[in-house]
Amino acid sequence: MPSVAVKLYSVFFKFLLKHRLQNRIQAPPEHSDAFGVTTRPEESVAAANPSFTDGVATKDIHIDPFTSLSIRIFLPESAVTPPEPRSNPNHNNAARKPRSDHGSASTRDSNSLPSRRNSYEPSTVMHREESMRRNSAGNGVVEGLNLMSNGVYRGYSPAGDNRRKLPVMLQFHGGGWVSGSNDSVANDMFCRRIAKLCDVIVVAVGYRLAPENRYPAAFEDGMKVMTWLAKQANLAECSKSMGVGKVGSGGGIGGVGGGVGGIEFKKPDAHRHIVDSFGASIVEPWLAAHGDPSRCILLGASCGANIADYVTRKAVEGGKLLDPVKVVAQVLLYPFFVGSVPTHSEIKLANSYFYDKPMCMLAWKLFLPEEEFGLDHPAANPLISGRGPPLKLMPPTLTVVAEHDWMRDRAIAYSEELRKVNVDAPVLEYKDAVHEFATLDVLIKSPQAQVCAEDIAIWVKKYISRRGHEFSY
């Protein structure tokens, strides 16, 4: 059974959420607000931190001038730290010593990152001496590689094409359509954990909330971010091919002198930046330099899992229209699926912890337009007929469920349907766990949260590895 603390917090959580949902339902209908909101005033938010103080830098970007849609990028420090080369007779013995996650003074510098398993691609970056590495306080650069100023990461000056790129994970938070945010304290902690364990760039999506913006606003926002990611990749390649922005002594980006953040570039003129040839605000340097959109993973929690599944379906239908973005896998954490015919868990666990069935019905009434409300709506029930594309075209799908979650059985049923058409679709069920146990860990301190994140990393790495499916599950 869940701990006493979880039970007490669940009672308090449900009381507050039910009160807020009822107030919004009883409130007079408001005029449609296309701009919308992505976070509530009562939400505790974490400020963006671009300094790698805990191994992950974050940046907030408002990507749509017509709506409140925004993203928060989580960039792990491994993206800007040159990896150790593989064994080479020309390197000294210290460079060839194996490294472990725990490390020691003899195998790594005290200010450098803990080492990682080389699981994605062979090292193509030339070996650099430890003395040339950027320290954690950001007091230097690596021959123009890391652009730091007072510990704040400003961008990246890649050395030709010999740079290591990380997969990109789009993350959709939970909150029953009406609450939660991509910059909340709980979501910030979860995304940092996932970014470090999976060694990916996490793009947390701040989609518009209901009832200000009902269906299909949140789903459309998910597709807007996917399209934006594709544009970023294409613009970055276009900028690189145009060869704008030589890196010289005292040179800047795109012909602007003085460097970035007061740091001068010291690479030869033969090396060029990935730069923005069309305006400073178009190409996002963190993604242009460090992201590999051809290895894209979608992850959603609770109602965010519904959005992730929708975006995945649209990506499958769109095919090459989203090139070079390719969805290689998706992770659905306790999806917010319902249906008109109740499952065993929907009957037995109707009054489960945090999000019980009556409260979820209120959330669906706030999200779906009145004329479209129904438990078999395509946004609610993944198993209704005629919901394209065919399941056999879906990418590998990992489903995470909690023992004490009333929505558990329908998520398992969806996974079973995927397996019937030979899609890799395992289910991980965590005993004594409740809905949102992994994403609300900052509040409920669930012992299963860290284990769940590690399990996700093991499975995801099968599909983002450059060297093949070296991980088994």
TrEMBL record:
Gene Ontology MF terms in the entry: hydrolase activity
Compositionally biased region (Polar residues): 103-122
Pfam family, one: Abhydrolase_3
Alpha/beta hydrolase fold-3 domain span: 169-438
Annotated region described as Disordered, given as residue ranges: 30-49, 79-134
Database matches in SUPFAM superfamilies: alpha/beta-Hydrolases (SSF53474)
Family: Belongs to the 'GDXG' lipolytic enzyme family.
The protein, known as: Alpha/beta hydrolase fold-3 domain-containing protein
